[in-house]
């Protein structure tokens, strides 16, 4: 029995060494989760005596197109002697923080049994809106409309395109929407209203009743 004692002790010693080596190899092949985390390194360079700190370069990145886009429009309803429905969807883009440019399409329907009027007006417009103050917006616009008027010589209705340059301003209330940023109570003046006349009877053929145009616009 004594002759086997040294052999038994040698086997136990070798088993311990093998277990230690196996544990080390297993730990080496395990996934290193710490190394997968982003590391941030901050190096501070001390400023020398009499040395001015270096200014970091600043670059302005323009906002994405989707963040500068505005969608909305204006509408109007009138009932009475003359029924007037006015729809005008609009799309705009912030050219700067205060300047918005855009386009829109316009459709108007006028109906009156008393005056035997049933007319459709359609066209488009382009506009610029400048935010002078948080609640004051200046606006310039050019609107082209296809209108209908009566030819007293041929005794029939004819159509004609008229162009209207409009200027004015608006009282603006912010809405905070992603595309519709505010509501604008706008008053515009038509610079060509007095020249938009029926060549046969001299009456005005503009769908607006006066050179002053009032709109409520969401944009």
UniProtKB/TrEMBL annotation:
The record's keywords, sorted A to Z, are: Signal
Secretion signal span: 1-23
Q: Write down the superkingdom of origin.
A: Bacteria
Protein name stated in the entry: Outer membrane beta-barrel protein
Give the organism the record lists: Salmonirosea aquatica
């Amino acid at each position: 029995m004594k002759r086997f004692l040294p052999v038994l002790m040698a086997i136990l010693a070798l088993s311990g060494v093998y277990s230690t080596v196996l544990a080390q190899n297993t730990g080496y092949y395990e996934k290193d989760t710490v190394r997968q985390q982003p590391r941030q390194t901050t190096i501070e360079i001390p400023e020398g005596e009499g040395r001015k700190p270096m200014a970091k370069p600043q670059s302005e990145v323009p906002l994405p197109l989707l963040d500068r886009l505005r969608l909305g429009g204006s509408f109007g309803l009138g009932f009475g002697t003359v029924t007037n429905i006015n729809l005008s969807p609009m799309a705009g883009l912030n050219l700067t923080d205060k300047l918005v440019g855009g386009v829109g399409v316009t459709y108007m329907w006028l109906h009156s049994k008393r005056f035997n009027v049933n007319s459709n007006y359609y066209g488009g417009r382009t506009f610029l809106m400048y935010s002078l103050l948080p609640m004051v917006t200046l606006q310039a616009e050019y609107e082209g409309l296809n209108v209908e008027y009566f030819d007293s010589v041929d005794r029939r209705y004819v159509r004609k395109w008229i162009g209207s340059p409009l200027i004015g301003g608006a009282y603006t209330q912010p809405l905070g929407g992603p595309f519709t940023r505010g509501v604008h109570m706008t008053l515009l003046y038509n610079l060509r209203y007095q020249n938009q006349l029926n060549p046969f009877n001299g009456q005005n053929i503009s769908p607006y009743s006066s050179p002053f145009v009032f709109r409520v616009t969401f944009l």
